[in-house]
Amino acid sequence: MDILTKIQEEVAKSLLVHYECDVDSDTVLINQTKADFEGDYTVVLFPYIKKVKRSPDELGNTIGTHLKESVADISDFNIVKGFLNVSFSDQYLVKQLDSISQIENYGDFPKRSEKVMVEFSSPNTNKPLHLGHIRTILLGWSMSKIYEKAGYDVFKTCIANDRGIAICKSMTSWKNYGNGETPESSGIKGDFLVGKYYVEFDKHLTKEYQEWQASESASNLFKSKAKDEQTEEAFFKAYKNTYFNEHSAIGKQVKEMLLKWEDGDEETKALWSQMNNWVYDGHNATYANLGVSFDKIYYESETYLKGKDVILEGLKDNTFYKEKDGSIWVDLEDVGLDKKIILRSDGTSVYLTQDLGTADIRYAEQAAEKMVYVVGDEQDYHFKVLFEIMKKLGRSYANGLYHLSYGMIDLPTGKMKSREGTVVDADDLVEEVIEEARKGAKERGEVSQLDKDAQDEIFRRIGLGALKFYILKVNPKKRMMFNPQESVDMQGQTGPYIQNAFVRISSIFRKLGDIPELDFSAYALEPAEKELVKSLLQYPQVIEQAANNYDPSLVASFSYVLAKQFHKMYHDVRILSAETEVAKVFRLRLCKTVGNVLESSLNLLGIEMPERM
């Protein structure tokens, strides 16, 4: 039994013995004592004050005295209003450090039977990965690592949105204006080349639309359709999508290409396959640079037909209904949503079509009890609809579906170098943070003696550590701003600050042999040492909380606090020149354990530790 469970039981026993107040020990609330107060853990007394009709001080003294007598490792207590703060003895904390320092993979939970599938990235195959993708990639990868640490069987996956109108826009544009250009002939990375033609398509559509607006038919349309006092500029700004669907010549080419693709036209399929492969090569290079991978990538082109089967199934049992134009819909008004189209009148799919099919296919293959979709908060409504449809269809896995919704990510300048001119590309951002790390390291001059390859690896680890930590330290639900220069600051709440703590620890042990075994039973902890041991003891709890709350920022916050406490101890006490041999060996063991946990916690964020900085 761990000590916190023991305290819960003894608090419940004290309430029963002294006040005949029967409470479930599991409901006794215990928090870590705030830094401003003396103590290690705090028992919240407020739920019992009215029940026993005693003052907070009297109740706290009764329970505190009982705890001190019944829990040998509690050395003292104090009461602050409705809070009972208890302190652990140095001997207890020393024993706990001795225990965790001998656990090879401290923080690992026993293997669980549950399987968790995490879907992340899920890009369209018509452009490079961009700044928004970086947040979903890092969140998905980190949650996968956290779930693994928490004992779950984890399956990492991605759905490539490799078909549809957007893909056909790039294909039509390349066919019309590409003159046979390839990544090899142009020297342009494949995903950037396809993205170039996606942008090119919009330029031609915009030009066509502007020319059409000057026509008599457009003028007549405005007169007949415009609302009262609506300007031509406002009307035509809102009308662009309708123009694409009903009037545009290039839009007609795109829709014809989509129908040809769905009909299996060989020439269309060959062009689609060629351009998608260019994008896959580019995306895979970006994934490799970020240090992430997938157990399996699913393709919308292979799952949307299964989605159509699901829709036909729902149509037969009246879960779905058909409109007069042949389109198929679902009515979700009974659960506070609205009516939603799930198959167009011409038989072509919408996003929900492939998501329905993909969910069924993945459950059939993986039987995951939980499926976590890491997707931006602009898709909140989409996933509410998807999950409710699965419930209406009676899918056994429907209650295990979860949307890890995250806020958008911005830059102070709005954009950095972007080959598309409108978004921040992931490759450019990675290059930027590595260059910032390079500049900072050169200014300090601490790695100048290493060869170029070794330096480049250090710059890569620091730069990527800065990028990943800066993004993951923010609660996923919050919109955030990423500042490349601020991310590599060695003094702030940053990845490099934590990496520097690890490097300091590594430097201590670089020339040392094994740490001897000594008797620490009478060792008196310094305040900085005590804080470090208490934080180390929290690590398993932090992992479980991060898994349960879908929140890697809890791990990031823990690792920062641990690094900060280590830097303070490094400043406050001597280590290699400690006042006694016992103090020296204890501090070395403490440093070693802190280094291991820092490396483990940053690994959960996908961050590698450099040996030098």
What does this structure look like?
- With 613 residues, this protein is an alpha/beta fold.
- The chain has a domain at 3-88: Gyrase A, domain 2.
- Helices cover 56% and strands 11% of the residues.
- The protein contains 23 helices and 14 strands.
- Strands 7-6-5-11-12 form a five-stranded parallel beta sheet, with helices on both faces. It has a four-stranded antiparallel beta sheet with strand order 1-2-4-3. Strands 8-9-10 form a three-stranded antiparallel beta sheet.
- Strand 1 and strand 2 form a beta hairpin.
- Helix 5 (131-149) packs across helix 21 and helix 20 crosses helix 22 (553-572).
- The longest helix has 25 residues, at 266-290.
- It starts with a helix and ends in a 10-residue tail after the last helix.
